[in-house]
Amino acid sequence: MSPRAEPDEFFIGWSGQTGPRLGRFLAVVAVICVVAMALVGYALSRHADDPAAGLLRLGERDAGGGPVRPDDWGGEQVLQGHVARLGYPLLHLPPSAGFPRGRVMLLSGDGKRGPDLPAVSGPMELRGSVLRRGSLEMLVVDNALPLPASPDLHPAMHEALGRWRIAGEICDGKCYAGAMRPGAGLSHKACANLCLIGEVPAVFVTADPVAGSRFLLLAGADGGPLPATLLGRVGIPVTLQGEVERIGNVLVLRLDPEPARRP
């Protein structure tokens, strides 16, 4: 007696049912696709740039089981220094062994806003949390208190480094320092523009080091913030030119009036 032959499956569009063998095949293919996409995503994330060197701790939980708050990224800091403005308000801290020329921090406020300061210059005590990426340090200011004049709280040393033409990318200093991921690139362009319109300091991330630094604070030709005409060049490769100045441990590029160029 010959074995019974299984009937051939036949697709019937109006039946609403998939044949058993085709169903099993599609289920296996679906599982393979899901696993493959998960592995590819994991592999890509393993090679992604870390924007904050461990200070950005998305997904971590605090002792109470809640998400780690941005205020806890770098812990609260209370710093006394001299606040002066070149492009944006900067905190000049006294020289130390690690910063013999003085230590300069960029300043921002909560969200996509610049810091709320009682005056544009003078000795102050600032309270807030620190974002750090490489040599870029930014204090997210929670509170500012003016201080009386003191010989210990003075602006950091200035040094003119001449005229430069530099290739790189315009970013907002807060997201690039670790407040967002990614904090640079075309995908971050809209967020960066909102930050810059809110007077968060603009930085120029260079393709090659400039005087030992991979970023420069940007200032307009008049010493004001980034000109609005350059907002369309944020997040893309550009070439900027102007006068470079070292203030403490931070480089500042005072831009020429002419527009930026694509490299």
Question: What is the element layout, followed by pairings?
Answer:
Layout: H1 20-46, E1 76-86, E2 88-93, E3 103-108, E4 122-133, E5 136-146, E6 158-172, H2 173-179, H3 189-197, E7 202-210, E8 213-219, E9 237-247, E10 250-255
Describe the structure.
With about 260 residues, this protein is an alpha+beta fold. It is built from 3 helices and 10 strands, in the order αββββββααββββ. It has helices at about 20-45, 175-180, 190-195; strands at about 75-85, 90-95, 105-110, 120-135, 135-145, 160-170, 200-210, 215-220, 235-245, 250-255. The strands form 2 sheets. Strands 1-2-3-5-4 form a 5-stranded mixed β-barrel. The chain has a 5-stranded mixed beta barrel with strand order 6-7-8-10-9. The radius of gyration is 26 Å and the shape is elongated. It starts with 19 loop residues before the first helix and ends in an 8-residue tail after the last strand.
Brief description of this entry?
The protein is of the alpha+beta class and 263 residues long.
Quick tags:
5-stranded mixed barrel, 5-stranded mixed β-barrel, alpha+beta, 263 residues
β-strand amount: 35-45%
The helix-and-strand class reads alpha+beta
Segments where pLDDT lies below 50 for 5+ residues?
52-61
Helix content: 10-25%
For the CA atoms, what is the radius of gyration?
Answer: 26 Å
Count of distinct strands: 10
Q: For the residues shown, what is the average pLDDT?
A: 83
> Could you tell me how far the N terminus lies from the C terminus, measured between alpha carbons in angstroms?
81 Å
What's the shape? elongated
Write down the secondary-structure element order: HEEEEEEHHEEEE
For this structure, the quaternary state is single chain
Summed up, the helix count is: 3
